[in-house]
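For the sake of transparency, this paper describes our internal protein records without simplification. The record that follows is passed on verbatim for readers who wish to inspect the format:
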Amino acid sequence: MDVSGSMYRFNGQDGRLERLLECTMMVMEALDGFSNKFTYSLVGHSGDGPDIMFVPFGAPPQNRKERLQVLQKMVAHSQFCFSGDHTVEAAEAAIKNVYESFGDLDDEPEGGGRRSDSEGVTTPASGGGDPGQHFVFLLSDANLRRYGIDPHYLGQILTSDPAVKANFIAIASMADEATRIGQAMPPGTSSTCLDAADLPQLLKSILTSSIDG
């Protein structure tokens, strides 16, 4: 989840931070009560670093008050963090986090529950010992050019591990930045979502296509 200073700074211009908060709340509410089938974490990235933990695996917020506290922490971090960008490092850390949290990706628990990772959402569980699915959703304001980040290289990171389906989702764009990034990334790894209401359907589409594929 992008909680960089630019998210706070440009929120008044295009509502990007509000959009991120709406998306985050939608994810937490949609997964509430399904901890036996899904597991997820919400991790921020900003100039302060690539792995600012907001919701760890296995410890989702239990009620609306706790969910609002998560959003408050995101806003506070975005307001007071250092300038800079750790998008690439966030992608690397998220993929690594799968291994640290679940061990061998090929060694699934009895029952075949599917698992997700780190920057935002999850996969559905399945029975019968079906192999688990692991996902990283890297939400960003697509401000890569300012920090000299090559989208080709970011794409290499996102596709570095075939056991983890990683996707870059631009929730804001300076001019044609999101389009330029999408054209440079490997097919199927980059999307743009400038309306928070469209995010659930976008995530569902990515999950469905990955699982069916």
Q: What stands out?
A: The radius of gyration is 16 Å. Strands lie at 42-46, 49-55, 135-140, 165-170, 190-192. The chain has a mean pLDDT of 83.
